Amino acid sequence: MGWKDILRPIRDGLRDNLPSKQPHDNPEKNVRRQQDLLKGFTYFDSFQDLDDWHPDQAYSFQRANTPLLPRSGSTVVKGKSNITLIHDFSGNYHDYENVHGSFVDQPSYSGEYMQSIDTFVYFSHKLICVPPPSWINTLHRNGVKALGTFLVEPQSVGISKILHRSLADNQTWEYALATQLTHIARFYGFDGWLINIEKTFPIADWSLQCLQGFLEQLRSSFGDGCVIWYDSLTCKNTINYQNALTEHNILLAKAAGSILTNYVWSAESAARSKAFALQNGFDPVKILCGIDVWAQSSEGPGRLRETYPKEIGGGTGTGLGVAKLAEVGLGSGLFAPAWPYEHFPSRSDSEAVERSMWTGNPLPETLCCSCTVRDRHAIRNYMTEPILKNAHEFPAGSENFFYTDFKQGFEQFVCASGTAEKNRAVAGLISKSVLPRSVLYAGAQKTLFSCSEVTETNTLLLAEIMQVCIQPRSGKTRRYSISDVALSEVNETWSCLLWKVSTEGLEDAGSEDDGLPHSDVTGPFDFFVINIDGREIGRGYSLDYLLRDIDDEILGLVTAMMNIFRILGDLSHLFSILILLHKMKTSSSASGISFKSQFLYLIVYVTRYIDLLWTDPFKSLWNTTFKLVFIGTSSYIIYLMLNDYKPTHDPNLDTFRVQYLVAGSAVLGILFPYKYIPSEMLWAFSIWLEAVAILPQLFMLQRTGEAETITTHYLFALGAYRALYIPNWIYRWFTEGWFEPISVIAGLVQTVLYSDFFYIYYTKVFQGKKFNLPV
Fold it and tell me: Is the residue at 644 inside a domain?
């Protein structure tokens, strides 16, 4: 023991008796805490916050409603390692984990290989870190235990409260803090705790027996495997990472039931840990040897982090550590499994590296990151020893129940026109379902969960399975009702929709009888669909749902789906086509109409709405209807101009060289799509082509010098359609932070092309005069 070990407890004792340096009246911190609370997040920064907590302070949506689905089969398999993830991702509590869902620029980490995860620890640098309900629900559907973190860091004040105890009525010691931690986990719906104490106790308060008692009480409350002691504080009240199970930490490991070692271990120390465990009656499976996934990064000139195997461990070499632990017969604790999403700036690279880590897929040749060492991640054996090869794989579902609707943690956002926005996604981590196991078939790089993701033209669609449900039959009758719906004001901005659920007939037909999941929060229901004025605005996973500005909700809170400018723009577009058809039918003529412009518009609609071949038509009837109407009416106009009214069209006036417009749009569509796949390039091509498709018509108008009034009405309505999109874009920028450069730039170009026409239309036609161009 060095002099630092002697002085540290004295220093910590002095700190514990000084006033906290983190005042509770910090305005900035309080604002952040309130914002996080409304997202469903719960955490505590101080022992005082922990003491003050009471269930009545929480909203229902802060609680997880999905019980842990018990896995069938053995929990231990010889030659395989049980995987525990310690999820430390940029401080955590991110917007995409919001219980109400959120808009994000791109998908992030959501745990893609849950069939091979035993336990998931949500970690943040808070004293008490409660996993968000979005994670707990997703983990529990997949049979994964969700643990919170109790983290005492050197700056924490009040550590001695851990050891405070009192004599209960049954003459046993009761630890108030352990009781509070149990209440918190039970209330919020997770399964246990990682106990990480990185600070020594004051000498005057230190008691190994009391710390053991604290851990034993937690273990008795949650069961084996649900309380994990971290390898930092030793039995001698020193901070000394053992990187193994030793005489310095075994008493605390036994009290908790499991231990997570630090990540600087070796093959020899892992073998010694197992032997020491067997000698002392401790199950080796309960030893989780840490593997630092970040250790493979080499950013800057500093010393590299170390994990097994030395120099190539972590990152894409994480599976090498898992392989060694599987061979020895110990568990694996992976620190920061979201590393690919922090280290690699490109989303496609992040996903590819995550697949490489877990399945052994080859890394992209164009992989780009901030490492100072070239090819740092293309280590030897990364493809032959992926994590999944040596991880214990669990069957999906329980013995009596299985359900999936294949819902992922992120979905591409679809706007009112039915097109998917390229730099926008909807985060719905709380809704993530049980997903198929990823298997490499015929060179495929990942599992596709929707027909809309299939881009190959030679793929034959036979059927699309939307959901799978397996449950026991029951002759018992259940009646459910929703009542007492009310609105409660949270603050000036937010209101909360509240309701109650009555479940008759469940008294003798509970989950213990039929094996069906049953929630303490929502009873037999997984979620509730929230509709206002006939519009679905979201899913509620509790008995309350947060609403922002109810008036806006009723008008169309699906802020990202509809707004008044977009609706008027679409209606103006439709109105322009109806005017044109009316003009042609009533006059039995196509004079003054550019065939070339109409043909370009047909190309625009066909290439843009090609997704009709694979998207669900009922997902947005508004979008589907408009797409079909635009394609159908445009085709009909072309038919009339080629047949019935062909003699009335003068090709000598319609002479604009459209090949330049098509070629230019094609080049832009190929060079600047959001993704380099055929459907995305066709979409970009259609946007650029629509911007200039009116040029043949305007050129023809310039040659004739005049036009029928009804023809000018058609052109005005067509131009107004795009002009109305400008306030639509401004509106969406302020309400959603939305910006899509291709659409905006092309739309502005199209509006500028109409500017002269708009001026003459206003000064002539709008004033009741005939439309004439100035000489």
Answer: yes
Higher pLDDT, 439 or 349: 349
> What distance in Å separates the CA atoms of residue 5 and residue 613, rounded to the nearest whole number?
70
* Spatial distance between the Cα atoms of 99 and 94, rounded to a whole number of angstroms: 11
Same domain for 595 and 506, yes or no, is no
Report residue 180's pLDDT band, with 50, 70 and 90 as the boundaries. Answer: very high
C-alpha–C-alpha distance, residues 114 and 120, integer Å: 9
Helices (H), 120-261: 133-141, 176-188, 208-222, 250-256
Among 506, 526, 556, the domain boundary falls at 556
Residues 6+ apart with CB under 8 A from 169: none
- Regarding whether 185 and 141 lie in a shared domain, the answer is yes
Which of 556, 573, 591 delimits the end of a domain? Answer: 556
Whether residue 639 lies inside any domain: the answer is yes
Does the bond joining 436 to the residue before it have cis omega, within 30 degrees of 0? no
Contact 719, 757 (CB under 8 A): yes
DSSP 561: T
- Does residue 641 share a domain with residue 528? no
Same domain, 547 and 610: no
Summarised one tens digit per residue, pLDDT across range 719-749 is 788 788 888 788 767 655 567 788 888 888 8
Based on the fold, state whether residues 532 and 490 are members of the same structural domain: yes
Q: What is the pLDDT of residues 424-440, one digit of tens each?
A: 566 678 888 888 775 54
Tell me which residue range forms the domain holding 537.
Answer: 479-556
Asked if 506 contacts 524 with a C-beta cutoff of 8 angstroms, the reply is yes
Global pTM exceeds 0.70: no
| Beta bridge partner(s), residue 120 | 85, 146
Of 264, 275, 258, the C-alpha closest to 241 is 264
Length of the chain counted residue by residue: 775
Residue 17 lies in a domain: no
Whether 231 and 298 share a structural domain = yes
Q: Distance (Å, rounded) from C-alpha 332 to C-alpha 282?
A: 17
- Report how many domains make up the chain: 3
pLDDT at 264 over 50: yes
Q: Who's near 703: CB < 8 A, 6+ residues apart?
A: 653, 655
Please, which residues have CB within 8 angstroms of residue 137's CB and are 6 or more apart in sequence? 64, 65, 66, 430, 541
